[in-house]
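Notes from hallway chat w/ T.B., transcribed later so I don't forget. T.B. wanted the structure written out for a chain they're using in a teaching module, and asked if we could keep both sequence and structure tokens in one place. Agreed to drop them here.
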Amino acid sequence: MKTKLLSLVLVSVASIGLSGCVLNIGEGEGQWSNTDSWERVQDQNRANIAKLTMGMSREQVMALMGTADFNEAYVKQDKEINVLYYRTQRVRGDGTTTKDECTPVVLANNAVVGWGPKAYAAM
């Protein structure tokens, strides 16, 4: 039990440490290679978010949505919380994706418990 908890804590700490990274999407100097490619990504992500259902596993979410733009993981009240962020709206035309341009998908113990800002704030 202690080794499982220790492993979970180590993975959580590593995930939190990496969650502040900002990803550049596209080609060349942080800019999109095609003016409408970011729009296609956002449209596809919004369409796929509409297909999410409560209780889906992380694997099912990633099969539907693909790799998240950002992710977070932590433990709260003995629950393993994972938050996957997918780009869904453009805030700035600077060629980079930031968390404020993403919709969070929240999982507790490997099951979707909600998505969007209210779901994230509830955790």
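Follow-up for T.B.: The first helix runs from residue 2 to 18. Might be a good example for the class.
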